[in-house]
Amino acid sequence: MNLHEQLGALEVGVDQLIQAVVAPQAQNIPETRNANTAQAAAGAEEKAQATVGAAMQTQGAAVEAQAETAYNQAAAEPDEPAAKPVEPAALPTLEINRPAQNEITMTIGGQTVALRPEQISQLIEELSNARASMMPEPPPGIPPGWRFVSTKNPVMAVQKQSNGDRLLVMRHAGHGWVPFTFSPDMVIQLYMMLTQR
Predict the structure, then answer these.
(1) Where are the domains of the chain?
(2) pTM attached to this predicted model
């Protein structure tokens, strides 16, 4: 612990002492005070402050002693660098498991979250929307070894746009509803691709 961290810990300790001593005494003071109760309360507060002051002096002396010891050790060992380089913290890893048919767990940095189907759909949608604006774009061709689940005869909906384009929305078993917009020329190309033998 360096000197700044020790001073921070000292300040936190003092705050905790003040809360521990002053707060219970404040709760024990009745709302209607006469001169004797006010004097007793003032005396209790002075006593609490004296206790806190003594604790601060004790902790302050301990911090000074630790700082002096560290300084003396550094002076006695000149071959070692005064400040060791701080190694960057390892990035948390992502772990995905499937403990049950309708559940997936994701663990990041030791924190595990279980996701149900509707939450997974929401996550897929959010990730898909974010990925659409990221670079680099997905590869133009199908990558070798790509794993996928295809949906046979998907449910679809088509809508004509005001500029002549067609919006085709297809329901994929894993991705959910996936929208595509085709220009009139692309509709013809798609038709030709689907009907060629």
Answers:
(1) 3-29+37-76, 90-137, 153-197
(2) 0.48
